[in-house]
Amino acid sequence: MGILSTLLLTPLLGILVLAILPGGNASQIRFTANLFATVVFLFSCWLVVDYNQLYGDIQYYEQFIYNPNFNSAFALGVDGLSLPMVVLAAMLTLIALLASFSVVHNIKSYYISVLLLELGMLGVFLSQDWSLFYIFWELTLIPLFILIARWGGTRRHVASINFVLYTMGGSIFMLVSLLAISQYMPEHGGTLMADMTEAARSMPRDEQLWVLLGFLIGFGVKMPVFPLHGWLPLAHVEAPSPVSILLSGILLKMGAYGLIRVVVMLPEATLIVQPYLLFIALFGMIYGGVLAWRQSDLKAMVAYSSVSHMGIVLLGIATLNFTGLTGAVLQMTAHGLVAGALFLLVGLLYERTHTRNILDYSSLVQVMPRFAFFMTITLFAAMGMPGTVGFVAELHAVIGGYQQWGNLMLFLGLSILISAAYAMRTVGMLFTGPVKPQMREIEDLKLYELVAAIILVAAIVLMGLWPSPLIDLSVATITQMNDFISQSIQ
Amino acid sequence: MDYLVIFIPLLPFVAAAIIGFGHLFNQISGQKGEARSADIAKNAIYLSCVAAIALLVADLMGHNEGSLTAVRWLDSGNLEIELNFITSGFSVIVAVLFAIILVIVTRFSTNYIHKESGFHRFFFVLSLFSSSILFLVLSGNAAATFFGWEIAGLCSYLLISFAYDRPVAGINATRVFVTNRIGDTGFILGIALAFYFGDTINWTDLNSAAESMATPTVTIMSLCFVVAAMAKSAQLPFTPWLARAMEGPTPSSAVFYGAVMIHAGIFLIILLRPVIEQAPLTMGLLVVVGLLTAVYSFVVGLTQTDVKSSLCFAISGQLGLMFLECGLGLWELAMWHLCAHAIVRSYQVLTAPSLLHYVHGNPMKPVPETVAKKRWLYIASLQRFWLDPITDRTLVRPVNGLGYDLDRFDKNIIDRAMGDPASSFSAITTLTQLENKTHKNRLEAVHVEFVKGKGIVGKLLEWIANIMNWFEERLVLRGIGMDLVTMGRKLGQAANTFELLILKPRYLVLFVFIVLMLAASI
């Protein structure tokens, strides 16, 4: 059994152990779940150390054919694109579990759901077979539906149903596209990603376009791209804070990750829709930013800022050049860290004050200096301050975009300006201003919350100051993908 | 002397008209007018009784031709309906008998209804009924008989609900009327079939035409008339209406259910004797229904504890025997039975209120030992064999449900489609709702303050933000997201309702009917 299967089976083992444990003993359950999440995280760290950065192909490949009739395979592997996502998923799950101490009822099913969600997310990033990918993709819906509907806010039922309907609706288009490609596979050809890429190349141009549109809808819902983001504000606001961390940190990246794989598969079709992708990306960024600026609900603000930031990923993908792709991959990691940290901190604040309205807050720096410190750094990272990981990613995307479209990148600058506006205003309204009596008795971050916050903020700052390890991790794979794309386009 | 027959139904009708219009125009009203309206009704029925006796005497002496055609009432293609009468035979005998009973009852009522609020109404209805029942008995064609048949039914309805301020009376009257309408359906169908197959609706012509008709044709036609007779004469399964009809005042009970109207059914059977004799199946049905009704009435009658109820089951039992006799071909006996029963029963019902006084010291005979020991029979008898609940369950409730469904369809779909004014449900009705609304407005006001921009760029951003927010709220969140869920839920509910409805027996039955009708039309 390879390292990747072990990685994937660890959360499953955790679920089984949790299922056996008695439900009454809360600390035992919390400890077990955290233990397994830590083990997964350590595995993924070891994977990063062991990974050969100079070699861009799939590594640690393992395969087991589970359906001989169609040659569907349980194929796992990582490359420079999926490895950062695997680490991010493991890390954010651990942090979400650290932030879950406020969940007090039905904790057993809660922790099982979170571990199931981790299993699904890891599976999506690890699988090298489209059918397996699809299974894991859909698997994430079940725990998320339960998590939002049981432990969410007041409108949790609407939010969870809305979320599931949207994603399922998108998945159908993705499935249709996959089926369309499989028409061009040899009989018993299986559904391996590499084989499907070959098959997609032999499709006629117009069919490639339709298939790409299907994928765009499927992944675009998850990412989310501008008109398909209707589920996001509601789901992010109503989900419990730890789930918001995972939702925004990892789940959105699944869409971006899938889209990059598809773009590599169908570069010619992507070239046709390139201008539209650019428009959607730019408009979505400004749209999300303006709406984030308009929200007085902190969680809704972070949710809309996610729409805005994922636009950068789409922009990077749409450039179809090396720098832009690098920017997209970097932004995926950066946004995962920043959005995760933002939701973590906003969630912790909400637990203490039970209000998300930014107008209720004032002068928090006096009672919560540690919180203020981490929150400020994270908000700066969100607006792409140099010295944070967000800046590196945005810089790549801007350069890549400039190579492709020139002065149109002014709009990107505009969206960054808007994000600066709401980030700065949030800092001002939260931490400065007159002292309010109801904001006098708030406790600062506790130890384990501090640990979670430190991990994320440290990653944000360290990778911002010294980004080359992060870039080196992916660069070989991105080069390979870029070569492939530019060959096909010419 | 044939022309006398016209006066027999006409005189009570004129009396009814005078009382009705007099009461309407306040000429006959209050306690002062009581003598007047009673006199009018009495004199009219006296005269018509005399006319009937004269007609009978003339008939017995052989001065009558047997029929009289007054005027042509309707002429349309082949269909030709005359106002004609039968002036000889059994019809005249029955007419005389009924007229005498009506005279007695009218005289009796004068004192009985005295000082009651509906005095004039009662005599109006009684006169109208007298006219209609005599018309029924004497008329020479099916349409005219049906005319009298219906008016008699209507009068029955009016007198059962005589005390219409009591809800029970209204409910019972409606129930009786609707039950009788089932029989009326049979009657109309019978008339139509008679015209279709026999080309005539004159009783005499029809009876002579029956001999040349094929057995199935005659069977179906006669069955239709028999159903009408069964309903009117309270045979199974229509028997329960008789008990409900006892709601009316005693003289009306006597005249309607003791002596006169209840015999209209069996009279119709006897009138159609040649037709029914051609149809063995109908004869069989008469035997079965008559026997069952007789047994049923006997068993149920055993447990009745009030005079009127036990009388009413005795009546239906005797009528069952008459049906049985007709079915067995003992027509003569049935005729005698009819007349004798009418006389005896009218006396019994009229004296019912003082019956206890008469039977004092005359204890009832207990039922035989073997019957008394059967407990299930006792329960069944007490519950009258659950006929009413069964009817409720199989007919009344489904029809009610259908009406309810159609009403909902009307309200929810037709009214809306036609632009019915909006209901008041969406308006604010409670203080809490109002507070919620104002609270929301207050929050919005604070929010607007929050998103205010300064300077040109700030204002521009504010405007763009407002436009985008509108777009997001209206289209993305509400339009696609929420409405999708709401619509899905509504669709699901609609599908559920549809499923529930379609599974209900009434719709299965309706479906079967539609299929049958389609099959028949092809």
Automatic annotation (TrEMBL), chain A:
InterPro entries in the cross-refs: NADH_Q_OxRdtase_chainM/4, NADH_UbQ_OxRdtase, ND/Mrp_TM
Annotated TM spans: 6-24, 31-49, 81-103, 110-126, 132-151, 163-185, 209-231, 243-264, 276-293, 300-322, 328-350, 371-393, 405-424, 445-466
Cell compartment(s), UniProt: Endomembrane system; Membrane
Keyword tags: Membrane, Transmembrane, Transmembrane helix
Domain called NADH:quinone oxidoreductase/Mrp antiporter transmembrane: residue spans: 127-414
UniProt topology in membrane: Multi-pass membrane protein
Record flagged with keyword Transmembrane helix: yes
PANTHER family found in the cross-reference section: NADH-UBIQUINONE OXIDOREDUCTASE CHAIN 4 (PTHR43507), PROTON-TRANSLOCATING NADH-QUINONE OXIDOREDUCTASE, CHAIN M (PTHR43507:SF4)
Name of the featured protein: NADH dehydrogenase subunit M
Species per Swiss-Prot/TrEMBL record: Nitrosomonas marina
From TrEMBL, chain B:
UniProt keyword terms in alphabetical order: Membrane, Transmembrane, Transmembrane helix, Ubiquinone
Topology of this chain in the membrane: Multi-pass membrane protein
Pfam families on file: Proton_antipo_M, Proton_antipo_N
Subcellular location: Endomembrane system; Membrane
GO BP term, pick one: electron transport coupled proton transport
Listed transmembrane segments: 6-25, 45-63, 83-106, 118-138, 144-164, 176-198, 218-242, 254-275, 281-299, 311-331
Listed GO CC annotations: endomembrane system; membrane
UniProt superkingdom: Bacteria
Single Gene Ontology MF annotation: NADH dehydrogenase (ubiquinone) activity
Domain NADH-Ubiquinone oxidoreductase (complex I) chain 5 N-terminal: 73-123
rRNA-binding keyword on record: no
Coiled-coil region(s): none
Residue ranges annotated for the NADH:quinone oxidoreductase/Mrp antiporter transmembrane domain, each copy included: 140-357
Protein name, entry field: NADH-Ubiquinone oxidoreductase (Complex I), chain 5 N-terminus
